[in-house]
Amino acid sequence: MVALDGPSGTGKTTVARKLAARLGAGYLDTGAMYRIVTLAVLRAGEDPADSAAVGHRAHGTEFTIGTSPDQPELRLAGEDVAADIRGPEVTRAVSAVSAVPQVRELLVSRQRRIIADVLAETGGIVVEGRDIGTVVAPESPLKVYLTASADVRAARRSGQDSAAGRPSSVEAARESVERRDHLDSTRAASPLRAAEDAVPVDTSELSIDQVIVALSELACRRGLLEGCDAETGAGSGPAEVAR
Ligand code: DC
């Protein structure tokens, strides 16, 4: 299992999915779970700042989350909500919802069940989030903490929004990522932070493929990647990644 934590705009999702495909492993986007609960809260007309209502709503929310790195399915009461959960309303409210202890308890226990099931089925999983290495799976054999400068993260978020047809500007994206980082890292319940034994990887100057090569080498050295030299990490390079 690989635990991939870090703030938004560091390339976590793209990297996690590509790495999972490369390792022949499953994939779990825990941020999407917090987003689905947030969407349910907003659709019910509840105030994301009302922790009691949010906790209650989380318990009554029926959703499914897929673990395939190619096409992870996200359904709220049967409806495909993959696009809706990335919209600006959810993005604005998700930090408040994810700071509610009952929401975290509920989702962390579900995440642990999914991880156990996928590990039993496929033998591997890449899990992305904010507290995977610290809370959800501290026993994970490889923990990576992705970072990038605020400028780079804002530019990436804004590019993703434009590509998805959502209105965007780098300035607004910068404000949004900084606001969310602040809320996510200062909340009382399992704040965003690197596990002590996580490997920090700064992606500011790296392409996605370069990040994948670096992580594949780490995975190789921890015995999580087949067909490479675990002593030296050789055989985890770009040629193999391209396959
Ligand atoms: O990775 P993302 O942007 O989709 O995450 C959305 C929010 O969910 C993020 O602002 C903080 C929260 N989150 C969390 O608290 N714990 C996680 N393991 C994953 C996400």
Topology, pairings included?
Layout: E1 2-5, H1 12-23, E2 26-29, H2 30-43, H3 51-59, E3 63-65, E4 74-76, E5 79-80, H4 88-98, H5 101-122, E6 125-129, H6 132-136, E7 142-147, H7 150-163, H8 170-186, E8 199-202, H9 208-221, H10 238-242
Parallel strand pairs: 1-6, 1-7, 2-6, 7-8
Antiparallel strand pairs: 3-4, 4-5
The protein binds 2'-deoxycytidine-5'-monophosphate (DC).
Q: Would you mind describing this structure in some detail?
A:
This protein is α/β, with parallel strands linked by helices. It has one domain (2-241): Rossmann fold (3-Layer(aba) Sandwich), CATH 3.40.50.300. It has helices at residues 12-23, 30-43, 51-59, 88-98, 101-122, 132-136, 150-163, 170-186, 208-221, 238-242, and strands at residues 2-5, 26-29, 63-65, 74-76, 79-80, 125-129, 142-147, 199-202. A 5-stranded parallel sheet has the order 2-6-1-7-8, with helices on both faces. Strand 3 (63-65) and strand 4 form a beta hairpin. Mean pLDDT is 93; it is low at 239-243. The protein binds 2'-deoxycytidine-5'-monophosphate.
Mean of residue pLDDT? 93
Seen as an oligomer or otherwise, the chain set is single chain
N-to-C SSE series? Answer: EHEHHEEEHHEHEHHEHH
The CATH topology is Rossmann fold
Overall, the morphology is: globular
Low-confidence stretches: 239-243
Structurally, the number of domains stands at 1
Relative helix content = 40-55%
The CATH level-2 architecture is identified as 3-Layer(aba) Sandwich
